[in-house]
Amino acid sequence: MKGDRQAIQQLNKNLGLLLVTINQYFLHARILKNWGLEEMGEHFYKSSIVEMKQADAIIERVLFLEGLPNLQELGKLLIGETPEEIIKCDLAKEQEKHLALIEAIKVCEQQEDYVSRLLLEQQKDVNEERIDWLETQLEHIENLGLANYLQLGTLED
Fold this sequence. Notes:
The chain is mainly alpha-helical. It has a single domain (5-152), classed as Up-down Bundle (Ferritin). It has five helices and no strands. The chain has helices at 5-34, 38-64, 83-110, 114-144, 146-152. Helix 3 (83-110) runs antiparallel to helix 4 (114-144). The longest helix has 31 residues, at 114-144. Residues 1-145 form the Ferritin-like diiron domain. It comes from Alysiella crassa. One of its GO terms (molecular function) is ferric iron binding.
């Protein structure tokens, strides 16, 4: 099925953001594990896997639309040097993805590509949950202090 060029461009833009986020989450997971923050690292590792599955769904959709998935145009990774910076960097990347998803959903709606729109809406739901989780972690750090937050050792999903 030949897809709309604008919809494919938007899918590829979101694919690129997902690919950056996969790598960012994965690296943050390994950094946290190296620091002895295994539980926090595991949470970010699982997030990278979720992002990978979302990227896979976009790749399959672009191929179905007879487009070429663009895995080459990658943005910049935002790498934190402390646990708090890691959370802030990931929040910034998720907020960037959120804006791109909103734009892509509008374009798919205008181009009457409702299947792509639905795929992107589902990803936006996951994105919003992750933004909420990251903001909550930053609130915990602000309320408890970083040392107490890290000592709790449990992350709320």
